[in-house]
Amino acid sequence: MKLSLKKALRAAVLAAFTTMALTAFASAEGQMAIGAGCTTGSSLRLRAEASTSSGIVTTLNKSVAVALLDDNIPGWYKIDYNGSTGYVSADYLIIDQDNIFTTYGRVPEGTVHVRSDPSTDSESLATIDAGTIVTVNGLVDGWYSVTCQYGTEGYIRSDLLVLTDNPSSSNGSSIVDIAMQHLGTRYVYGGSSAGGFDCSGFTMYVFKQAGYSLPHSATSQWLSGMGTKIYSISELQPGDLVFFNDPSRNKGKACSHAGIYIGNGKHIHASSANSGGVIISDMTSGYYNTYFVGGLRLG
What we know:
6-stranded antiparallel β-sheet, single chain, disordered N terminus, alpha+beta, 19% helix, 299 residues, 22 strands
């Protein structure tokens, strides 16, 4: 009897420890979805807090699927979309009642397992890397039911996948898609979060969502040794990093500004000019054409 009791106590302690470890792991990776919803308004403002006076994290298009993280605040839902987390008014979100829906999901970083069942104890059917796009078919106990590019069907934990409406697995398209979600975010010197960016903080944040680790300065990113350098604006592709420098104003620096090329001679970047924040600027003439240093293509 004593031996059985000791075994029972040992098993209980082990179970408690395992539960704590799994909870800590899930918390470290991100918050798991409790449901899914669909936006009903165009240019829907995703707020940093559950208040109309709170800062705008980004804006969402109409009819996109989002992960529901919390529904405990009356009139508001906490959601995640494409790596951006915040609050939206309940007036502009329809909650899916059966958790059966179709959208796309992107692996934001690292490598994740596609499991045979919605459990970390189940068989790993495949592993997929950062930037990979899968089709999401629904949500089961905090796990997304997915179909991979070559037909593998299984489950990915919801905190390891971000929902997106972009079906392209192209790194460049995915990076531009992420960057555009933060158009209008305010400029903050030294900022590298969705609450505010400086130029290299913005590029660092966007590329982190696509699985790349960049240093936090324009010069360090340009001299990182990563990727392929491009020296002609005409050869740039969407998703390329772009760098600029006015040597008369920034002596001793290789670069003083960074952004992301989005195509058609334009780039998106966090500008300090007139408190511009994240804006889109032309590179075919003016300052950004004159002081273009080069581009950097990762992946």
